[in-house]
Amino acid sequence: MYKYCLHCDWHASTSDGYTEREVSKEAIEHFVETGHTVDSLRLPPPVVVEN
């Protein structure tokens, strides 16, 4: 999971060693402190299985 701010350079990611829960908590704290909008991406992208 990768969460990032749409207004500044803030970001947090599970690839940095955080759990999904910690990434979400950090994103909420960033929003509360700054009022900035935070968006997210899933890492890695889902695997598509074709028959």
Distance between the termini: 27 Å
Give the proportion of residues in helices.
Answer: 25-40%
* Helix count, DSSP H or I runs of 4 or more residues: 1
Q: How would you write the strand order of the largest sheet?
A: 2-1-3
Low-confidence residue ranges? none
Q: How much of the residues is beta strand, in percent?
A: 15-25%
Into how many domains do the coordinates divide?
A: 1
Average of pLDDT: 90
Protein name: Small metal-binding protein
Summarize the structure in short:
The chain is of the alpha+beta class and 51 residues long.
Task: Please explain how this structure is put together.
With 51 residues, the chain is of the alpha+beta class. It has one domain. The chain is 29% helix and 22% strand. The protein is built from 1 helix and 3 strands, in the order ββαβ. It has a 3-stranded antiparallel beta sheet, covered by helices on one side. A hairpin with a 5-residue loop joins β1 and β2. The chain is elongated, with a radius of gyration of 13 Å. This is Small metal-binding protein.
